[in-house]
Specification:
alpha+beta, 16 helices, disordered N terminus
């Protein structure tokens, strides 16, 4: 297999040096809309390309491709592998076969795309991932011996079989890299926890041996995927209690220490760090941020990263809380300016939220605890749609503090990167954030935090 990889990569390099970059053309036509939803996008050489469709639900995409490559087309949560070549056309459309939505692939290399989409080659499944690692390796070996036989016997164009063998080799590595995630998930679902269920150290040694660091392999989508999953597994290595932020930090340091191909390194960093920061925030990410900026130069990657970073940096202590104006039950508007000079403990809640309602007695107790201090305000902002239900709950529960109704489109939820309630915030006397994700009223830490702010 090593000889196959080497000879095929050499062919790619020679072809690339012999001509200017060509374009592979992909034409998409999806007239049938089943309302399944999901974004249509193309995963190609570590990039995500979102086509622009016209009113007829048609789009045309040009992909830089000197020789050949594989890509993934994701459509309505379906992942479709496609083989492309520079200067050639692939057409993908959908149609109904009875009640079944199906995909049609036409254009150049139709026989190849028909093979990889309708192939009898198989991959590891739940039965294999549930096995202990030594048995998993044996099962995977049998699967890919069978796959090689299928490719050898297939009626495919001259020269293509070696490319398909290389694709399957990288797919096999992906299966090994994915074992850590799927094996642990299956054991958890089956409530299995025993010494024999621990993944052995030779698994991590195998992962390190299959890592690949070669930008030329970006023509295969599984190349980045297996490296990413392998590194994530290596840095976790059966560690109990390791935090997500520590995993990300260890991952970033491992990537820059072991991957020297510039594009591969950038993609591996971006594919893990940016999604993490986008969803989890930037707390404890100082070193990761430094590593990212020292190694990633791609403008699109940087733009996505900075967008994710900035939506959390605006919530750091000392950053200004945004202006707002919401009304109380009598129609009186309250703004941020009305609370200037006070420490504010803010609650975003709704009457239909059981955890929110469970905190009301504790919120009332806090408000009474500080009732003699004019330097603090307790502010509850409801995102209820039903104003009458909100008023009724406020009266029934004798809710203390300032009670305002913002409605279901309250911009503070998006501004603070929250999709769930209850959510609590502490604002300083100067109108800046103290804590954008403060503990609940029932948490003993809350009263101490508020007393500290009052000093």
């Amino acid at each position: 297999m090593r000889k196959i990889l080497t000879s095929l990569l050499l062919a790619v390099v020679l072809t690339a040096n012999a001509q200017h970059t060509r374009q592979a053309i992909m034409e998409l036509s999806f007239p049938v809309d089943r309302g399944i939803g999901g974004t249509t996008f193309i995963s190609y050489k570590g990039q995500t390309i979102v086509p622009t469709f016209n009113d007829n639900k048609e789009a045309s995409v040009m992909l830089p491709c000197d020789s050949f490559a594989y890509c993934w087309l994701t459509y309505q949560r379906r992942r479709i592998p496609l083989y492309i070549e520079g200067g050639k056309l692939v057409k993908v459309s959908n149609y109904l076969d009875g009640n079944d939505l199906k995909m049609r692939i036409e254009g150049d290399n139709t026989d190849i795309n028909a093979f990889i989409n309708g192939t009898k080659t198989i991959s590891a499944g739940e039965n294999e991932y549930a096995l202990i690692y030594s048995h998993f390796k044996d099962a995977l070996k049998r699967i890919y011996i069978k796959n090689d036989s299928i490719v050898a016997q297939a009626d495919l164009p001259d020269g293509y079989k070696e490319k398909e063998k290389e694709r399957l080799e990288l797919q096999k590595r992906l299966c090994v890299a994915a074992y850590y995630t799927f094996h642990n998930r299956i054991l958890e679902e089956r409530h299995i926890d025993s010494p024999s269920s621990t993944i052995p150290q030779d698994y991590y040694q195998d992962l390190e041996s299959i890592l690949a660091d070669n930008d030329q392999l970006l023509i295969y989508p599984d190349y980045i995927d297996f490296n990413r999953l392998a590194v994530l597994a290596i840095v976790q290595n059966n560690k109990k209690g390791i935090t997500q932020s520590q995993v990300i930090s260890d991952y970033a340091q491992y990537v820059v220490s072991h991957f020297h191909s510039p594009v591969t390194r950038q993609i591996l960093l971006n594919e893990v760090i940016t999604p993490y920061i986008n969803s989890q925030g930037i707390e404890g990410m100082e070193e990761v941020d430094r590593i990212y900026h020292s190694n990633v130069t791609d403008s699109d990657m940087l733009a996505s990263y900075l967008k994710a970073y900035e939506k959390w940096s605006r919530l750091l202590p000392g950053q200004p809380f945004p202006d707002f104006s919401f009304k109380d039950a009598n129609g009186k508007a309250f703004t941020k300016e009305d609370l200037k000079g006070k420490v504010v403990y803010m609650d975003l809640w709704a009457t239909w939220c059981p955890p929110c309602c469970a905190e009301i007695p504790y919120m009332n107790r806090l408000a009474k605890e500080f009732s003699q201090d004019n330097g603090i305000a307790f502010l509850s902002i409801s995102i209820d749609k039903d104003a009458d239900a909100w008023k009724k709950k406020v009266e029934e529960k004798h809710m203390e503090g300032i009670q305002l109704l913002a409605g279901p489109d309250c911009f503070l939820m998006e501004y603070t990167n929250k999709t769930a309630i209850p959510h609590y915030i502490i604002i300083n006397k100067d109108g800046s954030f103290v804590n954008a994700d403060a503990p609940r009223p029932s948490d003993p830490r809350t009263i101490e935090l508020l007393k500290e702010c009052m000093k």
